[in-house]
Hints:
The protein is 22% helix and 40% strand. It folds into two domains: 35-122, CATH 2.40.50.540; 132-241, Beta Barrel (Lipocalin), CATH 2.40.128. By secondary structure, it is an alpha+beta fold. Strands 6, 7, 8, 9, 10, 11, 12, 13, 14 and 15 form a ten-stranded antiparallel beta sheet that branches. A five-stranded antiparallel beta sheet has the order 3-2-1-4-5, with helices on one face. The protein has three helices and 15 strands. Strand 13 (215-219) and strand 14 form a beta hairpin.
Amino acid sequence: MRATLMTIFFAGMAISTAAAAQTAKTAGAPRPPVLVSGEFTYLADAASFRLCRSGRSVPVAMEGAYKALEAAYTAQRSALGAPLFVTVEGRFAIKPGMEGPPRRTLAVSRFVAAWPGESCERNRAKAALKETYWKIVAINGSAVHLDEKAREPSIVFRRDGRLGATAGCNRLTGAYESKGRTLKIGPAASTMMACPPPLAERERALVQALGAARSFAIAGPAMVVYDEGGSPLLTLQAVALR
């Protein structure tokens, strides 16, 4: 009887230990950063961010990556005080206001991109991962510039679990798996065209980025693909449904 109880006791400890280890592993796993798209405005030393879905505006804390956001706004706004549609990584927190009580405030941890010509009216709903034509805007943080003689760099994730992509030269195909915000992409097959050096280098970078993908986040027309540690690999823009 005692031996049986001891066996049950140690078995229970083993199960509890395994469960605790799994919980710790899950808790310690990097999560994709919070991605936010909306209209940013800076005027008279006041910065605000309009959230498209609710239409509400929140102040923006002048900390973290705020300077990069303000610099992009100054360079790309259409007029003094005009809103600029942007995508940032950040978090919301209650912070003291310049006037009045503490308010819900956006703290920017990374500036992602600005989208001149876009607005909340056009982007109240976020784009879908699948069956969307995703234009590649940046690879590993480096902007992708379109070559007039090359295809537009893009990715399309099909509903059947297959994807098609190009860095501007060869066509890449492969399989992918997505659940929640996770994203894993299998080895890509490629056509065998000879590409000029700039496109060949970009293609190698794209193939490496696809292979390292582990998660993604979408906000409005923007999507960012992250590696296992939460670093950005690809920045994409939803151009059209095809």
